[in-house]
Design brief:
292 residues, eight-stranded antiparallel β-sheet, 22% helix, flat, CRISPR-assoc_prot_Cas7/Csd2
Length: 292
C-alpha cells in the first residue's frame, strides 16, 4: 500500500438531540460549553469514538477502552509488551542506535490509531521515550448556536448493599443529577498531512476507512447519556488537494462551510432549521456524504 500523496481536509456536521455528547468531569459531568454558551465536544472524545468504530470494523487499535477490549491486555504497556516487533526495543539491554525510529515504524504498522493519530511511548522502567506524530489532526467540535442544557434530578431506589441494621428493609434512596443538551448542531474539522503519512505509512486505504468511520461515527455508541438516535452525523465533507501542501490552507478550506440559522428569532430544534452551504474553491472539488 502506498501512503497518501496529497493533502486531505474534512469537516463533519452532526446533531445532538436530548443527549450529553461530552460531559465535563470538572463540572459535574454537564455537557461542555464555551463562555458564549456554545456546546463543545473535545477532540479526544471524537478520537475515542473513531477508535471504537475502527475497532468494530476489525482494525487493530492500541488505545482501547477497557470495556471494549478485543484482546487480553489491560493497558497500553501490556499491549506493547505483547507485540513481538515492538517490545524488544523497550528492553534495557537493547542497544540499537536507531531504536526510536524502529519503534515508530513497527508501532505504526501494528496499530491503525498510531498510524493515524500518533502516540507517545514512554513507560516507567524503560529507557526509551518515543513520540510518534500522526498525520490526522482533528479539531474540537463546536455548536453553531448556543445550546440549552437541561438538568434533572434522578433517584436510585434499589439496594446497592444489604441494610445491615435491618436486612428486611431497603437502604435509603440516593440522589443524583443527569444533564443533557436539548438540541444542537455541531461542526468539527480536520486534515491529513501527507508528509507525516510518509513516516507512519498512512495509506489511501487508511484514509477511506477513516472517512467511513466519520460517516458512521455514532453507531454502536449508545449509553444512558446518549440513547440510540440522539446523536447523528448529518454531513461529511471531504476535500482532496492536488499536491502535498494543498492549493489552499486548511483554515480557508474549513471556512468555506457556511451554516446559517434560517430564522434568527427561532430556537432551533432540527437540522432543517439550518442551511448548510459550501463555497466552491477554484480547483478543489468537495465530496459530500450523508451520515448513516
Amino acid at each position: 500500500m502506498t501512503t497518501i500523496q496529497n493533502k486531505i481536509d474534512f469537516a463533519i456536521v452532526f446533531t445532538v438531540d436530548k443527549a450529553n455528547p461530552n460531559g465535563d468531569p470538572l463540572n459535574g459531568n454537564r455537557p461542555r460549553q464555551d463562555y458564549d454558551g456554545h456546546g463543545e465536544v473535545s477532540d479526544v472524545a471524537i478520537k475515542r469514538k473513531l477508535r471504537n468504530r475502527l475497532q468494530d470494523a476489525g482494525e487493530s487499535i492500541l488505545v482501547q477502552s477497557d470495556e471494549r477490549r478485543a484482546d487480553g491486555y489491560r493497558s497500553i504497556y501490556d499491549r506493547v509488551s505483547g507485540n513481538e516487533d515492538v517490545a524488544p526495543y523497550f528492553a534495557k539491554n537493547n542497544k540499537a542506535a536507531n531504536k526510536e525510529e524502529l519503534v515508530e515504524m513497527f508501532a505504526s504498522k501494528a496499530w491503525y490509531d498510531v498510524r493515524a493519530f500518533g502516540q507517545v511511548f514512554a513507560f516507567k522502567g524503560t529507557d526509551v521515550s518515543v513520540g510518534v506524530r500522526g498525520p490526522v489532526s482533528i479539531h474540537a467540535a463546536t455548536s453553531i448556536s448556543p445550546v440549552e442544557i437541561t438538568s434533572m434530578q434522578i433517584t436510585k431506589s434499589v439496594n446497592s448493599t444489604t441494610n445491615e441494621k435491618d436486612p428486611s428493609k431497603k437502604t435509603s434512596d440516593t440522589m443524583g443529577m443527569k444533564h443533557r443538551v436539548d438540541f444542537g448542531v455541531y461542526l468539527f474539522c480536520g486534515s491529513i498531512n501527507p508528509q507525516l503519512a510518509e513516516r507512519t505509512g498512512f495509506s489511501d486505504e487508511d484514509s477511506e476507512k477513516l472517512k467511513q468511520a466519520f460517516i458512521t461515527l455514532f453507531a454502536n455508541d449508545s449509553s444512558s447519556a446518549r440513547p440510540d438516535g440522539s446523536m447523528e452525523v448529518n454531513k461529511v465533507f471531504w476535500w482532496e488537494h492536488n499536491s502535498k501542501l494543498g492549493q489552499f490552507s486548511s483554515a480557508k478550506v474549513h471556512r468555506s462551510i457556511k451554516i446559517k440559522l434560517n430564522a434568527d428569532d427561532k430556537i432551533p430544534n432540527s437540522i432543517d432549521d439550518y442551511t448548510i452551504t459550501v463555497e466552491q474553491l477554484e480547483g478543489l472539488p468537495v465530496k459530500e456524504y450523508d451520515g448513516l
